[in-house]
């Protein structure tokens, strides 16, 4: 069985996925994550990061402002 399929209506793209090995796994087992966003005041680059409970960065994506 496949879980969490992307709804293709808005043409999303899964760039990074970090998920537990089975559905309904307890966050107490270490599968708890949070996001962090930073915007550089000079360059206006928008950077989003996915972090684990220890604050370690698992994935980062920087988005440049529109021209």
What does this structure look like?
The protein is mainly beta and 67 residues long. It contains no helices and 3 strands. It has a domain of 36 residues. A 3-stranded antiparallel beta sheet has the order 1-2-3, with no helix packed on it. The chain is flat and about 40 Å long.
Radius of gyration: 15 Å
Residues in β-strands, percent = 25-35%
**Category from helices, strands and their pairing:** mainly beta
Unreliably modeled segments: none
**Shape type:** flat
Q: How many alpha or pi helices? A: 0
Largest sheet: 3 strands, antiparallel
Strands, total number: 3
Give the SSE order as H and E letters: EEE
Give the rounded overall mean pLDDT: 87
Biggest sheet, strands in spatial order? 1-2-3
Helix residue percentage? under 10%
Structure keywords:
three-stranded antiparallel β-sheet; mainly beta; 67 residues
Question: What is this structure's SSE topology?
Answer:
Elements lengths: L32 E7 L6 E7 L4 E7 L4
Briefly say what this structure is.
By secondary structure, the protein is mainly β. It has strands spanning 33-39, 46-52, 57-63.
């Amino acid at each position: 069985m496949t879980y969490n399929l992307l709804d293709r209506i808005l043409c999303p793209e899964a760039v990074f996925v970090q998920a537990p090995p089975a559905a309904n796994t307890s966050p107490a087992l270490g599968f708890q994550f949070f996001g962090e966003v930073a915007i550089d005041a000079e360059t206006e680059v928008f950077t989003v990061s996915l972090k684990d409970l220890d604050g370690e960065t698992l994935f980062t994506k920087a988005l440049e402002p529109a021209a």
